[in-house]
Structures are given as structure tokens and as C-alpha cells.
Request: fold
Amino acid sequence: MSSKVTHITSAAQFDGLLKSSKVVIADFFATWCGPCKMIAPVFEKIATQLGRENAVTFVKIDTDAQKDIASKYSIRVMPTFLLFRDGTEIERVQGADPRKLESLVTKVALEAHTAGGGAGEGSSGASSGGPLWNGASLPRGYSDITDNVEVLRTELLNVDDAAAGGVRVLFAPGKPSGKSEALSAGAADWVESDTDEQLMLFIPLQTNAKLHTLQITSHATEDAARPQLIKLYSNSPHNLGFDEAEDTLATQEITIKPTDWNDQATASIPLKFVKFQNITSLVVFVVSAEDGAEKVRLDRVRLIGEAGEKREMGKLEKIGDEQPE
Reply:
């Protein structure tokens, strides 16, 4: 069991957490439920990355052991995930479908930011349930479509887990802290490279999209610099390895100049629009850092463009089990 997940042993304990924690995410499961076991590692991974003491709490509730709680919230399908804010249910996902749980993750990320002190500053771009912070203005006629990122499938290679946060902080809705002091992996809201200055970021999308601009926010520090040379690869089914990227023709190659960074530490990178018309994924390869630095830092990544209709996601053969009578 992840240390970030609390196992509920009584109704009083659960009621207490609903009162003490701003956000609570509950996994209602049963020990006899195969799909519950299948999705459990996904839930625990999310909890490890997004759980915050007294702010965002992840719990598991055995419906056989806690029948009163299951009855109170009308749990009929295993597993069922409930999202609470200030003790009130605001979202429900039924079944062991990682794609459905993905939609809850986006909501959790927003609620986690709200629990930490309110919505981010800045403008525009809609995310599930609230505004996204943008470090630069949006091109006329286009919107922030970062909420179409499949957060659970994002992947970052060569990240220093000890010095910074995980890949999901790059798509967090709020304004980055810009802090420079070393923090634990669970507290930092930026990422840094590990063994050298290169990073490889895989961004899968829930929709086919037209990408117009890539916005990157990077607060340079003494230990980590801003990215300089970036290569983009469209529609890869998976993340590229560093050797594979070197041998693959990039869809676009960009050198970010010092003058491209604004006072919000954000660079707006215009894309060759004709090459980014039907995008299902994007790989961002940070090849080098400014001034030949040995480490590079990323705080936020925003996708600007137009999102199409969400693709029909593949369904599991059995997404859940009915609770026995």
C-alpha cells in the first residue's frame, strides 16, 4: 500500500477526513473484484504524485468491510472512484477503465491547486473546472488545449526525481512557484534533467489537434538553465529514446533565443502550422540548455491550438464487477 493512500477502517474515520482535507479521492473496491486489483497500481501512483497532507487525500474503502459507507454513497459497481471537495461529492467514475480515471486526474490536479491557495494568476484557456494559468498571451483565434493531454500516459526521460517533481507538474493548471531551493519530489512543481542537459517528454492527446504554439515556462537557477535547442516529433505512438531521436527527422527544430523569454519566464514557440494539423501526440526533445549548462529545467508546458472531437477510447472487456447482493 502506498504511504499516500489511507485505508478506511470506519465511517467515523472517513467522515473525519472529509472534514479535515479540502479534497478527498475515494477508491471503493472489493477484495473479490479482479478489475479493482488491476486498477489499484494506477490509483496508488496518482496518489503518490498528487497527495498532499490535509489538502488532497487519497483513500481506499473495502465495500464489504464498510457496508454502511458503500450504502450511503450508493456504490453498486466495483471499482467506483468518488471525488469530494469540502465534504461534497463532485465527480464519480465507475469501472476499472484507466481512460475514465484519467478524466478524474485532471479534476484532481485542479482541485489540488485550489486546495493550495486558489486559482492561478493570468488568463485564458479552459481546463476541466477552472482557468489555466498561461505565462504568455494566446494567439488570436486559438485556445489553450493542454487539458486534452492524457496525463497518465505522459512520460519524461532523464528526469532528476530527487531534485524536482514528476512529469505531471508540467501540465498543472496553476502558476509555477518559481522556487529554486531543493525540495522533495512530492513538493517541487518543476522538473530538472538528471545526468546531462537533455530531456525527452512524451505528450499523448485525447483528441486529434491542430497545434499552433508551444509555450514553455522555465525559471533558470544556478543549478539548472533554460532550454535552448528543442526538437519536436509529431504522432509517435510512444516516447523516443535519445538515440532514436537523434536518428529520426524532427517535425520541427527550434532554437530559443534569450530574447524569446518574457518576464513570466515563458517562451511562446510558433509551430509550422501546416505540419501540426492532425496531431495525436507530441514528443518534445530538449537537446541543449542555455550557456552550455549541464542541467535544464522546465516548469510548465502549454499546448495552444484547436482540439477536435475526443477519440472513441477502447473499452476493457470487463470494466467492473457488480456488487454481490
